[in-house]
Design a protein that fits this description.
The chain is α/β, with parallel strands linked by helices. It has 6 helices and 9 strands.
Length: about 240
């Protein structure tokens, strides 16, 4: 893909690029919180169908190898009190834990996001009402307030609750809870999508860096941030 300078939108620096190319260019120790929602192993299947999800332990190991690579890149960027957090679901948890182990990053928490809505499932499976956020916090990190439990309830009805049309959109107020718990000065999202985590950071006065390689989602994120910052937004790349 063609590399270009990032857009500076208020307090957010937004790249329309591949995170594997951008992450090595950022300064070590320059961010405090990596909060991201990567694809849940979509297009990782060895059967050759880009629409298929990973199927089987061999595919999970291949996915873990790739994920561990960008996990390490993110870990290099974290400050001494930094926290890494990635969304996942029941199917991708084994791969996430394997990737963390390969990256030599400890899993320190697993937060349950209770959507308070029951999702679809085949007749031979229970219907899911949750996703998870797996955390890897450095030893000097602090999660506050200490009354915050590892179950967070935010109602979300899949396609009915979203505002952007992104297939995996997350609630802004859920992201705000996570950001407040870490209290970062700089947040990084290497899979920015429609910019939900960047928008949540902006609302809380936190500087952010976002990376999104899909042109359509990049423009969507840029428009949402420009809408928030108004006249403060610098939307030219």
């Amino acid at each position: 893909m063609t590399h270009c300078d990032p857009a500076q939108i208020g307090t957010c620096t937004l790249y329309n690029d591949d995170c594997m190319d951008v992450l090595p260019t950022l300064g070590a120790g320059s961010v405090d919180f990596v909060l991201t929602d990567p694809p849940y192993m979509v297009a990782m299947s060895s059967i050759g169908d880009v629409r298929a999800k990973t199927d089987g332990w061999a595919d999970m190991n291949n996915a873990a190898w790739l994920y561990a690579k960008w996990y390490r890149m993110c870990h290099r960027l974290l400050s001494d009190t930094g926290v890494f957090a990635t969304f996942a679901n029941w199917r991708s948890i084994p791969m996430v834990l394997c990737a963390l182990a390969r990256a030599k990053m400890p899993a320190t928490s697993c937060v349950i996001w209770d959507k308070e809505w029951i999702g679809p499932a085949p007749a031979n499976a229970f219907r899911s009402t949750y996703e998870v956020i797996v955390f890897s916090a450095k030893p000097r990190a602090t999660i506050m307030p200490r009354s915050q439990s590892d179950i967070i309830r935010r109602k979300w009805m899949a396609a009915h609750s979203g505002q952007t049309g992104h297939p995996a959109e997350k609630p802004v107020d859920l992201a705000e809870v996570l950001i407040r718990a870490v209290s970062p000065k700089v947040l990084l999202d290497p899979f920015a999508g429609s910019g939900t985590f960047l928008l949540a950071a902006a609302k809380l006065g936190v500087r952010s860096i976002g990376i999104e390689m899909d042109n359509g989602f990049f423009e969507m994120a840029r428009a949402r941030l420009a809408g928030h910052f108004g006249s403060l937004a610098e939307v030219a790349t």
